[in-house]
Amino acid sequence: MPRSTSSSSSKGGPVTLAMVARRAGVSPQTVSNALNSPDLLRPETLERVRHAIDVMGYRPSRAAQTLRTRSSKLIGYGVQPTPAGLATPVMDRFLHALSQAADEAGYRILLFACPPGGPTLDGYEELLGQHEVDGFVLSGTARQDPRQAWLAQRGVPFVGFGRMWSGRQIGDWVDVDGASGTDAAVEHLVALGHRRIAFLGWPRGSGVGDDRAEGWQRAMRRHGLPTRGRRAQSVDDIDSARSAIKPMLDAGVTAVVAASDMLALGCYHALRERESAPGRDVSVIGFDDSPTAAILSPTLSTIAQPMEAVGRECVRLLLARMADASAPPERVLLEPFLVVRDSTPAVHPGPSGPTTSTADR
Fold first, then answer.
1. In 177-306, which residue ranges form alpha helices assigned H by DSSP?
2. PANTHER family annotated for this entry (predicted)?
3. Cα dihedral angle (276, 279, 285, 291), rounded to 10 degrees?
């Protein structure tokens, strides 16, 4: 019979399933059914057993459960290395949300290190060879990512946080609609009176970055605003972003939509070098709603990702895939939302409204 790994009897030893059965006045098999197949019991019996479990603090042994169900109740998640000096608050929030959602479903997240240089199969083969996980959550999905096809060919359940960014979609995924976020950012700026709006993004070829750039471009075109010459590119680094946005500022843009809060911070630095003020002279909107955004001066308007919902949906889709491997793939695209702060004040119009030129119309 499975024994407790964390609870103790009044005599100091572990609380066993048999002890719970005696307390509830039922057989050990009835206690097992209450834990694993509660629908087999009458409501009054189930309530009596659950009361005994709660009073005695009984916790089933994970090892015993694994032997019985052939399920480890573990979900594998490969942790990508973070470049020196680069914070990843969004992924930290995702991992917390994922762990909480898994815990509520009776699972635990098993972390393992992934090598630098992009997604590989290292770690995944080893864990599967040891039969230590029931499925995987993938992040950092990218073009030419080998993991999805490899896992699918072996019938291993998985869900991706992020799209495949290639023509062939494999498996279930949950993602945040970055294009919708930057579209909303442009809408907000246009409503404030801005017409010369630049985009500061990552180099082309990044699925996430291109998606966010597409939202900016889509909204600009919808309002008949020019985009040529108003897209700057930078790696996710403050100094690089500062250099990349300078030509846009020289050209007289009045607002900048950035693909990340890190890039927006580079824009802040570039403005201060010009003795200009973010918000007062040029409006700035970031993306990710990192902790830094709320403590900058001025505080940074930004697009927030619903990470708690992402974590819940990843666990839901993975458990559904474990239950039915033949079900059609499910893809969930979640809406981000704009957090308005001091970096996007209303534009003060002149006698004829916000300043524009013929080229800006």
1. 178-192, 207-222, 238-250, 261-273
2. HTH-TYPE TRANSCRIPTIONAL REGULATOR GALS, LACI-RELATED TRANSCRIPTIONAL REPRESSOR
3. 100
The predicted model scores a pTM of: 0.76
pLDDT digits (tens, 9 = 90+) for 134-163: 999 999 887 778 899 899 988 999 999 999
Closest CA to 287 of 148, 140, 182, 210: 182
Question: Closest Cα to residue 114, out of 81, 139, 76, 155?
Answer: 81
On whether the CB atoms of residues 336 and 307 are closer than 8 A, the answer is no
Residue 231 near residue 199, CB atoms below 8 Å? yes
Question: Any bridge partners for residue 255, and if so which?
Answer: 197, 283
DSSP 24-92: HTS-HHHHHHHHH-GGGS-HHHHHHHHHHHHHHT----HHHHHHHHS---EEEEEEPPPPTT---HHHH
CA dihedral sign, ordered 203, 149, 312, 57: negative
Q: Minimal CA–CA distance to 254: which of 352, 349, 347?
A: 347
Q: pLDDT for 212-261, tens place per residue?
A: 999 999 999 999 999 999 999 999 999 999 999 999 999 999 999 999 99
Q: How far apart are CA 277 and CA 150, in angstroms?
A: 50
Sheet order of strands, 255-258 included: 231-233, 197-201, 255-258, 283-287, 301-304, 337-339
Cα of 211 vs its chain's centroid, Å = 16
257 closest CA partner among 194, 207, 336: 194
Nearest Cα neighbor of 200 from 185, 180, 190 is 185
Cα-only R_g, the chain:
26
In whole angstroms, what is the distance from residue 72 CA to residue 63 CA?
A: 8
Q: Which residues of 72-83 are buried (b: 16+ CB within 10 A; e: fewer)?
A: bbbbbbbebeee
Q: What letter represents residue 25's amino acid? A: G
